[in-house]
Design the sequence.
């Protein structure tokens, strides 16, 4: 019989690292991460306590390390060290200037505890990995945007935004309670409660022209980003049915989730039906559809078909001028 001792040792060390990385960790969270039972997690926690690690358990809350107790950093594997290189490259293109500086400072600290062979591994990989962003994710005149937004969420304090909406030539000032920040379809967004509109709104971060702290506390308790977005999609969405040639369906898989993809089923030997739940306005969907319009047709709704036709007619008129 093969002993599970090596696997258990690795798991216990990983549990210890996770306990040091968060204020409180639930037993269920640990069980799901390591794909073991709650009983196994309880046994592992007892083993750590027996070894002299001061872990405090609170019923209904989770486990935490005694305040002030820390172990020296665990050495990183070569694969973990290599992952830092990819993370650093991504941060260079997908965060604002201030957050990048903080990350680079943290990376120096991480690299300082790597063994010699791991440092060589990281230095070698660094010159062979390159990322090219299509567009700038942030307004370069606001280098601290993400930093202020993170601070707002953590402190539950409102922020003031000078925002440039796509159909508005002027700026509007918005007092916003930031619920969360998410990245979708190549852009960063804020989801927040806008006091000007008295409702939840999404703000694309590269369209923010100014951002300021506010001392005003949040005026209400908010649901999570996922819960609010799911409710908004349900309330402001329409069903789109589309017929697409089978040989191009594979190429649509990269973007279709961003437009509310629901399902796919064959119609005949050469066509597939795709169903979407998309925003009731449909403007973004219509323009996405135009990229492959010669290989597909919209079955419903009629309003979306008319909008695509209108865009095409306007384009033809401009080409003929």
Sequence:
């Amino acid at each position: 019989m093969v002993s599970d001792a090596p696997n258990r040792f690795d798991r216990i060390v990983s549990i210890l690292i996770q306990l040091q990385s968060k204020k409180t960790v639930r037993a269920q969270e640990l069980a799901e991460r390591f794909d073991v039972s709650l009983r196994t997690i309880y046994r592992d926690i007892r083993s750590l306590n027996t070894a002299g690690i001061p872990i405090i358990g609170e019923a209904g809350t989770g486990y935490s390390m005694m305040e002030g107790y820390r172990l020296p950093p665990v050495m990183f594997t070569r694969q973990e060290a290599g992952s830092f290189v990819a993370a650093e490259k991504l941060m260079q293109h997908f965060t604002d200037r201030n957050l990048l500086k903080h990350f680079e400072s943290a990376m120096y600290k991480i690299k300082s505890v790597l063994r010699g062979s791991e440092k060589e591994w990281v230095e070698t990989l660094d010159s062979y990995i390159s990322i090219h962003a299509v567009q700038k994710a942030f307004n370069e005149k606001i280098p601290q945007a993400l930093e202020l937004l993170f601070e707002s969420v953590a402190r539950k304090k409102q922020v003031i935004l000078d925002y440039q909406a796509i159909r508005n030539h002027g700026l509007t000032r918005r007092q916003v309670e930031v619920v969360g920040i998410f990245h979708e379809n190549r852009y960063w967004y804020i989801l927040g409660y806008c006091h000007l509109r008295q409702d939840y709104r999404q703000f694309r971060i590269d369209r923010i022209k100014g951002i300021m702290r506010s001392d005003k506390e949040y005026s209400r308790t908010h649901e999570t980003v996922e819960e609010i977005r799911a409710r908004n999609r349900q309330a402001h969405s329409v069903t789109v049915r589309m017929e697409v040639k089978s040989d191009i369906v594979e190429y649509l898989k990269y973007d279709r989730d961003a437009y509310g993809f629901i399902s796919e089923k064959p119609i005949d030997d050469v066509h597939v039906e795709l169903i979407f739940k998309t925003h009731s306005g449909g403007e973004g969907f219509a323009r996405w559809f135009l990229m492959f319009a010669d290989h597909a047709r919209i079955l419903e709704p009629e309003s979306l078909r008319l909008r695509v036709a209108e865009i095409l007619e306007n384009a033809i008129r401009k080409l003929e001028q």
